[in-house]
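Work package 3, deliverable 3.1, input record:
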Amino acid sequence: MFSAVESRRLYRQVADQIRSMIATGELAVGQRLPPERELAEKLAVSRPTIREALIVLEVEGLVHIRMGSGIYVARRHTVQPAQPEREPFEGPFELLQARSIIECAIAEEAAQRATSSHIAVLDENLQQMASVVNDTDAALGIDRAFHTAIAGIVGNAALIRFTGEIYDQRMTPYFEKLASHFEGPDSWTRAMEEHRAIRDAIAANDPAAAKQAMRTHLDRSQKRFSEGFGEELFGEDEGGRAAARRNAKI
Amino acid sequence: MFSAVESRRLYRQVADQIRSMIATGELAVGQRLPPERELAEKLAVSRPTIREALIVLEVEGLVHIRMGSGIYVARRHTVQPAQPEREPFEGPFELLQARSIIECAIAEEAAQRATSSHIAVLDENLQQMASVVNDTDAALGIDRAFHTAIAGIVGNAALIRFTGEIYDQRMTPYFEKLASHFEGPDSWTRAMEEHRAIRDAIAANDPAAAKQAMRTHLDRSQKRFSEGFGEELFGEDEGGRAAARRNAKI
DNA sequence: ATGGATGAATTGGTCAGGCCACTTGGCCAA
DNA sequence: TTGGCCAAGTGGCCTGACCAATTCATCCAT
């Protein structure tokens, strides 16, 4: 299956250029970039094109845009998309082990400090989960939110971020396909029950129980994941209207 | 320590709205969004604002934009590190708290599985540390290596990477300047002793002692860091012009 | 009837110009 | 020295126009 080769948009080219200037140190960390109007003039493009390029870079975390002040090279491209020395991802089992260690510690900490408003957040998540057990895509999103909500109880942005990131690193296209096969109403219902056990332990302010419930949940999640290996998989396509028409012919 | 509260840009709000429509399933995977002009009309904003919002979402991996064809909900937001809920960066105390939770859990796990070759690695690190107590830059590198070596005992690449990343996130130019003031032979010698206590607990395969030793080390590290804040300082900003002026006055 | 070519319509990409909100720095008065 | 005010600069958002790419409908040839 082939898709049209997409010519490179100008704002992407501009973003690439600025990104490489940051990477080479030509633009130093913390340094202020020239104003949009000046960049547009220097690079001989329109100002909206510059804006669009800068938005790309900001979403990537390479720059920080401040209204009225200017655009600054981010202090540290923390957790960046393209980390060249980084493996594409660690093995899924390795990630699960890491989750087990980190998230058990977080659950333990959360149990020591949970309030009723924290528990209400978890309860709402459980309700949402109950209504989407037939929709794996939505369930994955809510599953993720449950885990980051526990980190949220600790109230530490770094932990929230790590929890989300480590969850997302499994979210490869491959894993998604796998999930669509091995996750279904049964497995999501079980996951939800495990979530409830975690919720209950945290609500009881019982760190040891919370840790154990989280470990149980992740162990079982790993088991479900292991059982899912073995399916034959196909490639992916994002579908356009022409593709839909081609599909119709098939 | 305060930083300016940044009002929410319109294109970010639009991106948030579309993102939540994708998360709730209102916009299905693979579905084509309305054209830019129509979205602009429906959401009562300008078309460039829509474009900017869509660029945010494309960089995040949630949509795929095709010229002349339309905008499609991505099959899956694959491994897109730019997390919308992410703060620009976490405060140093927040990172220390996160380290405390994560690294104590890792130390606990390491103590359960350490072998003599693992301990030899820690011993070599301690020797290296002893020879560079007068050189803060070198000491920081060896300090980092000690912490990642503990994660290495668990033998999990994800944990090693997280340990390194979370350590590095303190390594802002600001922090490095601070370290050059408050870290010296005395503090590095104390850190080394604390490292030794961690090493000993891990060597004894005593998880509780390892956890306690690590927590003690990080608590004291935090105390040393806090004491460094006795100085008159500017906020955690990326260096705006106002901050530069206040600096000049100091 | 079917397939290919062509042109129109639609859609995203880029530009120019304008105005508003916010930030910063300088100056002056208390 | 500190606080207030103002001007200049900067990012944010808008309107309108035109260009490039894609899709779809129509027409023509086989």
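Residues 1-6, 77-89, 228-250 of chain B have pLDDT under 50 and may be disordered.
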